[in-house]
Design goal:
This protein is of the alpha/beta class and 400 residues long. 43% of the residues lie in helices and 14% in strands. β11, α14 and β12 form a beta-alpha-beta unit.
Length: 400
């Protein structure tokens, strides 16, 4: 593992963030780091974990802590799934493959974004563990059906359908950094923004050696081939997923479906009604609609609504193992994390992702020991206090 991400240089996810900021051009770092509009929801996701406090059992010996959890019938070494992060190949060469390999080595699941620079077959082959495929309808229904068939053949075990991208969020950092101009074909428009690439020669050399600007290898348009890497705002606007679409997606897939982007009890009920096996309480990391509630605050409402009918996951703001513990106390079976490992990917490729997972695992064990709790299965709301006014729901079984 590179010294740049080893202890004591890197002790937590924020340290990885700082390393990534030094390694990446501003336009790439801000793509990972930024949120929509004023970024209120992005910040609120993190603050929500700060508002929940622990109630430890002291004078309790916990020599070993069981971190294992079953998600969609598959055993994971800890309750962490790497969330889909589009364009990971911009962060590091073959970025999706590197992240999937690190997840597989750690015994956790990796979720590949439709908007990936690596072929889904290559990503599945890179991992020793569980891989899920996240689907957008960019390129149209035929493109999605083709990718679904490829994902089945490659051994992906679950299909993640993201429902909160009717249009792309207003990510102002991307606009200020000239993301659209840098992706365009007008040289004059690029000039004001090129300097941020030149100030990161290491990244630029790796980027060019990896083939330069990638294509979306899993959005294969009939008669044209893989979709060119470009501003996806228009493409997402033409690719809205509705509840009716879940019928043909389910029929084509034939396996477990995970609905990602649930904000409310009503949408949680919809996910149950369409036959999904799991849902993700998610506001897209605050990158879509700014001003929605933080996911941790929504989680108890969703858990209370669906009960044991569907497995509940949550993402948004996960930066420490203690955050994972708080989410499980409020009823989540496991968490998904995006930025936490994307910082590691930008910092040092697969080694950085491995370090992010290692940090979260050590945090998780330490938190359980300090709580006096020997296993994840025993976590419930008696281990935490939540602010007055938060909805409360029962803690669902995570290993049933």
């Amino acid at each position: 593992m590179p010294r740049s991400v080893q202890s004591p240089r890197v002790l937590n996810i924020e340290d990885l963030r700082r390393v990534a900021k030094r390694q990446l051009p501003r336009v790439v770092f801000d793509y990972i780091d930024g949120g929509a509009e004023d970024e209120r929801t992005s910040r609120a996701n993190c603050r929500a974990f700060e508002e929940v406090t622990f109630r430890p059992r002291c004078a309790v010996a916990t020599p070993a802590c069981d971190l294992r959890v079953s998600v969609l019938g598959q055993s994971l070494s800890m309750p962490l799934i790497l969330a889909p992060v589009g364009s990971s190949r911009l962060m590091y060469p073959r970025g999706e493959e590197a992240a999937a390999a690190a997840a597989g080595e750690a015994g956790i699941a990796y979720t590949l974004s439709t908007l990936s620079g690596c072929r889904l077959e290559d990503v599945a082959a890179a991992s020793k563990g569980t891989v899920w495929y996240q689907v957008y309808l960019v390129g149209g229904r035929d493109c999605a059906l083709s990718a679904i068939e490829r994902a089945k053949a490659a051994g992906y075990s679950a299909l993640v359908v993201t429902i909160d991208t009717a249009v792309a969020g207003m990510r102002e950092r991307d606009l200020r950094n000239g993301a659209k101009e840098l992706l365009g074909d007008r040289f004059g428009s690029k000039l004001p923004f090129v300097s941020q690439l030149l100030t990161r020669p290491g990244w630029l050399a790796r980027f060019l050696a990896d083939g330069g600007l990638m294509k979306f290898q899993n959005v294969v348009i009939p008669g044209q081939g893989p979709m060119l890497y470009a501003d996806v705002t228009a493409a997402l606007g033409d690719a809205v997923v509705t509840w009716d679409d879940l019928k043909w997606i389910q029929q084509a897939w034939g396996g477990p479906i995970v609905i990602k982007g649930v904000h409310t009890a009503d949408d949680a009920r919809h996910a149950v009604d369409v036959g999904a096996k799991a849902l993700v309480v998610s506001n897209h990391g605050g990158r879509q609609l700014d001003g929605v509630a933080p996911t941790l605050r929504v989680l108890p409402e969703v858990v209370a609504t669906v009960g044991d009918q569907i497995e509940v996951l949550v993402d948004g703001g996960i930066r420490r193992g203690s955050d994972i513990v708080k989410a499980l106390c409020l009823g989540a079976r496991a968490v998904m994390a995006g930025r936490a490992y994307a910082y590691g990917l930008g910092a040092a490729g697969g080694a950085g992702v491995a370090r992010a997972i290692e940090i979260l695992r050590a945090d998780l064990i330490r938190t359980l020991k300090l709580l006096g709790c020997p296993s994840l299965a025993e976590l419930d709301q008696s281990y935490i206090d939540v602010p007055a006014g938060w909805p409360t729901g029962r803690a669902a079984s995570r290993n049933g």
